[in-house]
Amino acid sequence: MKKGYLWLFGLGLCLIALGWGMKPTSAANIDQVETAVSTAPHPNYSASSNMVQQQNGGECDIYAVDLLGAWVDAGAMEGSFPFTSLNDESCTGDFTTDVLPMFTEANIWFEGSQACTECHFDNSEDSRHEMDLGTHAGILAGADVLSEPPGVPVVIPGDWENSVLRARLRNNRMPPGWEFDIEETNRDGPLLEHDGGNVYAVELIAAWVDAGAPDGDFAWTDTDGGDHSGSFEADVLPLFTTPNAWFEGSQACVECHFDNSEDSRHEMDLSSYAGIMLGGDVLSEPPGVAVVLPGDWENSKLRARLRNNRMPPGWEFDIEETNRDGPIMTVGKINRATTAGAGCDIYAVDLIGAWVESGAMDGRFPFTSLNNESCTGDFTADVLPLFTTPDAWFEGSQACTECHFDNSE
User: Fold this and answer.
1) Does some domain include residue 408?
2) Domain assignment of residue 254, yes or no
3) Is the Cα dihedral 41, 140, 157, 168 positive or negative?
4) pLDDT of res. 304
5) pTM metric for this prediction
6) What is the 3-state secondary structure (H, E, C) of 249-264?
7) Number of compact structural domains in the chain
8) Confidence of residue 332 (pLDDT cuts 50, 70, 90)
């Protein structure tokens, strides 16, 4: 069933994850009358015909992830919330109509994406990570509610930046090319033989980090409980510098992260001890964003990037990260005036982020669209479908609830 601690968050939202193919969903304008918003299969979230009749001013476009972000940052409530559209309009979204569908509907994130709720449908052992992404209560309860009661939060109301769901919707597992395994048997990488003992690659790196991440020798324990000694230079560094180290055909990490320069992805150098310890974005966020916390592997960013699959499964790897915030969604915006307006577009992951930072409530929440409009989404309509609907994240993506459907083993 579940093999790892933080997923969690086979969100497959799954979520969601961390984008869709990049299209819009809909929510209401904050200074305007509330309305219900329904969703249609990817590529766009579209207002229902009934809602369209109620609208006077068009829709607010926003990336799905940004819409979630607006909802979360507004408290993640089960109701309305403000957000800013891609056109910098102030809009209002609703949890039920704008957020929830991102978990419960197929094709929301990309063409063919499963609904998150195909895997994460209940707080039971039959649901992946005992997680229910089909309701507001289930999303706030989080994952592993039976094995780690009361559950491991995936949403921190008011704090999308640090919500686990955000990372699972946006971050690709490294190195790119991992085959998705719903049983998570490949989560700790390949089984290696060192010093006469066997150890999984991720566990070897973990032993090094928990030993203080020394530029030298460290102790590790093999799969049979035997004690061994390894060294950073001989045993750890090659996992970053050698092709095929993680699986047949895997790139060396240093093919993309080779220097602390703008030409290197995330300005990160994984070719040396000093570079690894500096971390990423050393130029744009000096002195750098740490990927390794000496003595604390559990909370090191590197751990999550090596172990966690981006949700929902099936994302096409984009080295430019243009699909990182999911599809653009259009959230219905109602103006008091009769002039037509632009839609509230937001990336799926940002939509979830807005919901979480709004308090992750079971209702409406505010978010800001891609055009900087203040919009409102709804958990049930906009967030939940991202977990419960197939094809929500990309064409062929499973619903999160296919694996995470209950709080059970």
Assistant:
1) no
2) yes
3) negative
4) 86
5) 0.60
6) CCCCHHHCCECCCCCC
7) 2
8) low
